[in-house]
Design brief:
The complex is a heterodimer of chains A (425) and B (254). Chain A has 425 residues and is mostly helical. Chain A has helices at residues 2-10, 12-37, 43-50, 52-65, 74-97, 103-128, 130-141, 149-168, 170-178, 180-185, 190-212, 214-228, 235-259, 269-287, 293-319, 328-336, 347-369, 378-385, 393-400. In chain A, helix 12 (214-228) crosses helix 13 (235-259). In chain B, strand 9 (205-210) and strand 10 (212-218) form a beta hairpin. The chains are: A mainly alpha (425), B alpha/beta (254).
Chain lengths: 425, 254
Amino acid sequence: MFSSFLNLLTDPILQSSSLGSMLMCFSSSLIGVLVLLRKRSLIGETLSHASFPGIILSSALVDACCSSSQEWRAIPILLGSAISALIGFKMLEFLENQLKVKTDSALCFVLASFFGFGILMASHLQQIAPVTYQEALIFVYGQAATMTSLHVLLYGGFAVLTLGFILYFYRYLEAVIFDPVFAETLGIRSKKIDHVLFLLIVVAIVIGIRCVGIVLMAGMLIAPAVAAKPLTKSLSSFLVFSAFFGVVSAFVGNYLSVVTFHEKYSLPTGPMILLIASGFAVGSLLFSSKNGVVGRHLRARRFRLQCAIENALKKIWKEGIDRSPLDHKMRKRLYRLGWINREGLTLQGREKAEKIVRLHRLWEVYLVDYLGQRVDRVHQTAEELEHLILPGLEKDLTIFLKNPLNDPHHQKIPPVKGVYEEGPR
Amino acid sequence: MYSLEIEQLTVNYEETSVLWDISLSLPDKKMVAVVGPNGAGKSTFLKTLLGGVKPISGSILLYGQPLEKMRGHVGYVPQRSSVDWDFPITAFDLVMMGCFRQIKWFKWVSKKARHLTEQALEMVKMTPFAQQQIGQLSGGQQQRLFIARALAQQADIYLLDEPFAGVDIVTETALMQLLKELRDAGKTIIIVHHDLSSVEEHFDWVVLLNTCLIAAGPVSEIFNAQNIQRTYGKRHLFLEEAIFQTKKNSTGVL
């Protein structure tokens, strides 16, 4: 098991594909963060499809010029796809800015028209040069397993470039993306930075395609960033987490595709990587502590339980332990909290209960005296509010209400000894 | 000393509201309200002062200097609704944005920037919240944070776009207090304001705007029923229609 982990990085055949896809995912997940924050998530989808006609055209040209076995053929094909994607991007800008086409329509239009044009040329290529056609198809679905050391070099170079850009322009990017108007007042050329950013997006997509394919590239750009977002509160940690998820996805994806290798079938690397990254994204949306669905559910449940416990305690305080029937579970809970013993409330339990009743009655005073609500209607609201625990709330409320002694129903409000020097005024 | 001198300023772009032939001078060390109906060009006015919107014609001088020379000296508090509160940025980093000039390439933080940021956070009493993500703060805290950014910037002139929209009255009073302290410390505060009832109480000067400049001057002289009627009345409809038409003609849109 462990040796196959190491194999992935040392074995000369596996090495290229695993290192290559890790470097690719590293840079694309960094770029993905910026794309997500710029709210242009769909641009990856459009630009990766827009590169297709370039791939076909440059494959055909390269095929016409030299023999098919040379390794450097990858470079003109990359160049061709980059040019094609850039034209797609310019067209997108033109549609949006000059023709005032809505963003989503413009994205769809560029995607469909470029990809359609690509398919048209591809079917022609299939007739005149079937082998080249097959090679060009690699880009549609991606093929990490056949990457060479040339690819590793290329991806390494781009990873360094991306990292350099982000480190160098970190504060600029933060200002430009977060508050463009403000960035303008500082004299930052937002437009220029934006242009470089979009150029990097194009390059990230174009070189990533070889690994995961046109169709999945958009996901590769966004998934690690989506996974990272709920875990972060600053741009730097966002970038670090996203890069981490990207690299780990690439590694695990490669690993799984190698260990599951079988003579009759194999799990392709690209989709595997994306599935892992998507798994991270779903996991973090479900389980992140801040906004995760699971965490929210648990917190809500804990609050409901706290309310139930406090209500039970209140009942005992008001009516005595004999007259408040408790189910076994609740009795055990209160016992464990040290709030009751066999005879009744402990000292601690009484203090806690009095605190709740006090808050309840303080809220009633507030609602009646300051908000003019009807005396017979406030009990229900106070029943909700008494469970809120905010630092200093009780003290602030006491001072604001000038430490009242009775609630609107003429019941005594349990006092707090020695805490509030102000006393009744 | 004038904090702001505007000569025949005209802004007429596709996406912004129109401003037409505005000339005014504002003294420094004043609280200035910019008042006018929706679509009167108040936000455009601020953005033009910030350099974010380029005017067709006219000149703007801040403390006698053209905008380009005053870059970084203008603090800006954006409209609440235009801020992406979900953006992963901490209170500290947001305020630090104001110290942009102190940070060299490749360096994320400098000693001076850190010091200025801490000082600014302290002044608006936000130090305990420095490491919170901005979306987790209350409305009033968020506004104070943006004011702190302007403080860290050591700005001379503060532009605030409807800072009291969506904050409660207690917070508004507290923010006003803070802004008044800044004015007393020699800053000029320009606020786009929509609550006519509190203009007299809080402001020294008022700029009444509805596409054209209706009036600008001390609140006690200018802010009267007649001028307000002129600002919010329908007498400008005719001019607005004409300007709208020129905009269409000049851009060729039907």
